[in-house]
Description:
single chain; alpha+beta; two-stranded antiparallel sheet; 2 strands; about 25% helix; about 15% strand; DUF2997 domain-containing protein; DUF2997
Amino acid sequence: METLEFIIRPDGRVEETVTGIVGCSCAEVTAAIESQLGIVVHYQPTSDYFAQSNQMDDTVQSSQENWTQWS
C-alpha cells in the first residue's frame, strides 16, 4: 500500500515520509505537494527508494502443437 505521511512541527517544519512506492517515482508523486509546502532543506531516501520493482511479465508464450485426438 502506498502512503504519504506528513508531520507538521511547532516551528513550521514539515516531515514527509513516503512508503510503498518503489524507486525514484516517489519524487514524482510528491513533487506537487512539496512545491506548495516550501523549500526542501533535507532529503533522505528510504530503502524503498533503492529497491527495484519486481513486476512480472504476464505474457505466456505457447506453441501450437498438433495433438492426436483419441476417439
